Amino acid sequence: MLQPSRTKFRKAFKGRIHGNAKGGTQLNFGAFGLKALEPNRITAREIESARRTITRHLKRVGRVWIRVFPDVPVSKKPAEVRMGSGKGTPEYYVCRIKPGKILFEIDGVTRAIAEEAFTLAAAKLSIRTKFISRVGEE
């Protein structure tokens, strides 16, 4: 699973996800992409699960790019622990997603195969997404 090799700080604030994505809203590598439609946090497990689904459906044809990286640690306290005594230990990593952000890109396959792959991958993600393609691509 994806996670940073080093971080400046072990624990992070929860934060809020405001507004639309500032960058990463255009297709840069592939002909087809999966675009986020709502703000939320996506876990490293979700990203890996979606990536596996896409690569399995493509049957090792074409190329896949992951445009997001989970770099925010989420801490959690153990079950049945009393209030207080500080923040829990980091359990997993997430990526904060804003609307308009491209999550995955595919190239080297037909439009039908790409659409089907992204439909299967979108089922693994906890946010609504949209299939997009370059103008004039088939």
At CATH's second level, what is the architecture of the domain at 43-77 and 85-131? Alpha-Beta Complex
If you average the pLDDT, what whole number results? Answer: 95
CATH homologous superfamily of the domain at 43-77 and 85-131 - what is it?
A: Ribosomal protein L16/L10
User: Proportion of β residues?
Assistant: 25-35%
Q: Give the class-level CATH name of the domain at 43-77 and 85-131.
A: Alpha Beta
* CATH fold annotation of the domain at 43-77 and 85-131: Aldehyde Oxidoreductase, domain 3
Written as H for each helix and E for each strand, in order along the chain, the element string is EEHEEEEHE
Q: Helical percent range?
A: 10-25%
Determine Rg (CA atoms, Å).
17 Å
Amino-to-carboxy terminus distance: 32 Å
Shape: elongated
Main β-sheet description: 4 strands, antiparallel
The strand count comes to 7
Strand and helix layout:
Layout: E1 32-36, E2 40-43, H1 44-58, E3 63-66, E4 72-76, E5 89-97, E6 102-107, H2 111-122, E7 129-133
Antiparallel strand pairs: 1-6, 1-7, 2-5, 3-6, 4-5
Structure description:
With 138 residues, the chain is α+β, with helices and mostly antiparallel strands. It has a domain at 43-77 and 85-131: Aldehyde Oxidoreductase, domain 3 (Alpha-Beta Complex). It is 20% helix and 28% strand. It has two helices and seven strands; from the N terminus they run ββαββββαβ. The strands form two sheets. The chain has a four-stranded antiparallel beta sheet, covered by helices on one side. A three-stranded antiparallel beta sheet has the order 2-5-4. Helix 1 packs antiparallel against helix 2 (111-122). The longest helix is centred in the middle third of the chain and has 15 residues, at 44-58. The chain is elongated, with a radius of gyration of 17 Å.
